Amino acid sequence: MNILVINCGSSSLKFQLINAESEEVLAKGLCERIGIDGRLTYQPAGGEKEISEKAMPTHTEAIQFVIDALTNEKTGVVKSLSEIGAVGHRIVHGGEKFASSVVITEEVKKAVEECNDLAPLHNPANLIGVEACEKLMPGTPMVAVFDTAFHQTMPEKAYMYGLPYEYYEKYKVRRYGFHGTSHSYVSKKAAEVMEKAYDEVKTIVCHLGNGASVSAVLNGKSVDTSMGLTPLEGLVMGTRSGDIDPAIMEFIAQKENLDIEGIMNVLNKKSGVFGLSGGISSDFRDLTGAMAEGDKKAKIALEVFAYRVAKYIGAYAAAMNGVDDIVFTAGIGENVSYVREQVCSYLGYLGVELDPDANEKFRGEQGEITKPGCKVRVFVIPTNEELAIARETLALVK
Ligand code: ADP
């Protein structure tokens, strides 16, 4: 069965068509600037990338262009819509309602809508994608795969904040965690690589992309993760601050004459390694480049980033009373050997001994970067959220 995987944002839509049996990507692409003008990037497997400007006033037109591209006589990869058996949608926030993926029904859509408050930038856009697909592909089963679902196994002691209990009761203020599809996919893969049963390992996953989070996966279940009610908590990220003293908000608000919206904008968009580096960049290629040229702020930004990751690893080793393996994934985790080396330099006490050659070698590909026989093994494992969504979708519609 071919499965269309959709990741819908407010003005963009990423897609992949995946043969769920062979797990081959038949085509992939991206619609951008939806509601502004519109641009479609489409690439069939083994074919040329095509970029075309197309009017996309809404997501419905965008999905129609995706379907047209996939079924195009010359460059398409299927003959008709009937060859698309199901659609898997990435949904960011499932609140406490969804601990696993589900087939989308009217009730599911309503329940997702009820989580809009918790992810106002993402969930409404995700739902627009669902509705556009329903309109153009009536009768095709749709599945919702939630970023938060994998972390629903966290115990209360991990997800409750030290706040008045009534905020949890009234507003469901608690830790949810994100990137769940990725944490689940790479932790499972690491167990496979180690030839161990997934429900018998203690794994710490470092998903280090533009957004970044760490998770503690004990016997196949997430027991803690660094992102919280929103993706702002935890690690220092591309432009997000991660953990700070909450009193800084009032202090800076007064000094800089900012309201809550202004402060949130600073914490989400102007902080992280971007802010720390004095605005050089949020991209680690630029930061390592600037550091190599002697830029002090770029160096500090990278040091703070790695130190925070190492502290979370220490915390999660404590939470699980040990750790068998640590996995680096996503853009930075898969590619930036300098960050991995820095992080591992704090982990000798756990029994991590980095193999510098292996660490340099593995970029964007799977490999082990600790020396043979290490007590705690460290892996680079490329994440593949689209494939994970296709697998979940297949399992539910089969
Ligand atoms: P997201 O999905 O959160 O946008 P990614 O997982 O794609 O993030 O990671 C994006 C980040 O990864 C970039 O900002 C960049 O810092 C880093 N990155 C990606 N590829 C490379 C590379 N080849 N070399 C160095 N850094 C990279």
From TrEMBL:
Catalytic residue list = 147 (proton donor/acceptor)
Recorded superkingdom: Bacteria
Could you mention a single GO BP entry for this protein? acetate metabolic process
Residues bound to Mg(2+)? 7, 385
The protein's location, in the record's own words, is:
Cytoplasm
Q: Which UniProt keywords apply?
A: ATP-binding, Cytoplasm, Kinase, Magnesium, Metal-binding, Nucleotide-binding, Transferase
Cite the Gene3D superfamilies for this sequence. 3.30.420.40
Residue numbers for the site described as Transition state stabilizer? 179, 240
User: Which family is this protein grouped under?
Assistant: Belongs to the acetokinase family.
Q: What is this protein called?
A: Acetate kinase
Q: Which organism is it from?
A: [Ruminococcus] lactaris ATCC 29176
